Amino acid sequence: MNRQKQERMKELVDLLNRAGKAYYQDAQEIMSNYEYDSLYDELVSLEKELGMTLSNSPTVNVGYQVLSELPKERHEEPMLSLDKTKEVEGLKEFLGDQKALLSWKMDGLTIVLTYQDGELKKAVTRGNGEVGEVITNNARVFRNIPLKIGYEGELILRGEAVIGYRDFERINEEITDVQAKYKNPRNLCSGSVRQLNNEITARRNVRFFAFALVRAPGVDFHNSRAAQMEWLKEQGFEIVEYHMVTRDTVEGEVIKFSEKIPENDFPSDGLVLIYDDIEYGQSLGRTAKFPRDSIAFKWADETSRTRLLEIEWSPSRTGLINPVAIFEPVELEGTTVSRASVHNISIMEELELGVGDEIEVYKANMIIPQIARNLTRSGVRDIPAVCPVCGGKTQIRQEGNAKTLYCTNPECQAKHVKAFTLFVSRDAMNIEGLSESTLEKFIARGFIREYADIFHLDRHRDEIQSMEGFGEKSFQNLEASIEKARTTTLPRVIYGLGIANIGLANARMICRAFDYELDRMLAADEEDLNAISGIGDVIAGAFVAYFKDPVHRRRLADLLKELTIVEEEGAGAPQTLTGLTFVITGSVTHFANRSEVKALIESMGGKVTGSVTSKTDYLINNDVESTSSKNKKARELGIPILSEEEFLEMTQGEGQ
């Protein structure tokens, strides 16, 4: 029953945090105040009943804090490394006739947590095994560490702080400085855990997985490590996945763990085996380097020989052009691989890597293809003088200890992936399946050079279907989404072009003002655009400047050949709301959602914003008597609050 309540608590924390973010950061409401208060009360009740509070619970506010340095602290007992084996036979020999726990050996940063009187008091990194850094301030903002637990004695436990691959990729994508990018999730986690400003740590989505209990006086664990792990789970900790094994079952469990690696979001560099019998394990003592009650199993890297076919140069949004080794396909860890990143020219030179060389490849941590060594070492040659995407000149730069290749053309399409991301976004062409990272790959391979090319990705079907993450089904889905996007409206097209300061609402205003006649819009000057209510000097200047460029006009003409432009719903609506600004909050009943209300207002010349200010004319909220912050603000400013029915009467519509 307690487990179910803990799961409900996690669910409530997630729900309430999403609602809070939507309300306070995005000026939107995804649930009513009544529902929020009801769920909040349920969470408070569960926290009192279970005697625990999750670190990201909305019932506690962990203040962000900046430190000048991280204090050091000596561990009560040295934190030793583990002896290692790469053979299952080594695990069988270690087991003998004992039972043991087999768990992930996570590749992050080991942390020691101390709780007193049910509250987190201290968090210290492993450091050098003797002395670690105190990171209590940062541990308080880890995604899943409980700040308060039911047990009130002194609890000391160990675990691994990790950052998942998805968060690693997201954070690295946001870093434009190549030298500042993190090499792997472990490096990112180490940097995140040891920040002096824990607001940065909080944004990194660090998670903690408990793997060992050190001390918990007064609790009878029946001499079982497994009992300790289950007790930690009951206290609210996430624990590493483990399975009880014997000499006869360990090989099968190792295989099961290995099969999970491709889908596992968290990095691991092997497995750990520890005796379940606590007294037996402790009686064995330790060597100068290793405890004798546990052993690590490291994956034996499966290597394969193959021949280097080419070096593909892959440009990125920063201008960096990364070398990628393309080799004859080989089987590694159950999958076929034919590509491996080489990272930079310096690594190529170190490997003396040339086309035709015989190379040995492997998967780092059984996931990331890498070149282990070059057996023939013919030497680096044919570094491209021009960018493979735009044809602009390239330049070799020395960055720290590494030589890198850059495209010097500021107009290179690879540098404008954000523009293509906007073009395919929901409010523009609404093409599903083209994420920013996917667009970056397509642009780097030369599939997309301008907007119209997106509608001809079928020309590259075979290449795309052979790419990692793509197959026949995903390509078919992408193709269907692209075909659907061919039928669209003119405001969506104008917005999708990414003209500075022109959002979808402004694009609609401009289109309506020129009766949706594109030729008139392109011939307009700043004075013509300034005459449109809601369009000022900045927007008018940006619009005219954009279409003065013949390249932009030509790209638009090419794009329009691929599209069928239809009249926007409500395009002929009377402009009775021109000059009025609305805020919409709460749930709606006459419309499918608030977006439909917004679309109606904009089709009639009005404007919709996210927050109530002195410039707001009306607040639409079916709960007119609500004490929500938006209602309070509207009353303070004397802004009328309309129910849906009152709004529909104003627009003389008949509802929906």
Could you explain the architecture of this structure?
The protein has 656 residues and is an alpha+beta fold. The protein contains 24 helices and 26 strands. The strands form 7 sheets. Strands 14, 15, 16, 17, 18, 19 and 20 form a 7-stranded antiparallel β-sheet that branches. A 5-stranded mixed β-sheet has the order 3-13-12-4-11. Strand 23, helix 22 and strand 24 form a beta-alpha-beta unit. It is globular, with a radius of gyration of 30 Å. Residues 23-29 and 62-66 have low confidence and may be disordered.
Structure at a glance:
With 656 residues, the protein is α+β, with helices and mostly antiparallel strands.
Question: Can you give keywords for this protein?
Answer:
656 residues; globular; 22% strand; five-stranded mixed sheet; 34% helix; alpha+beta
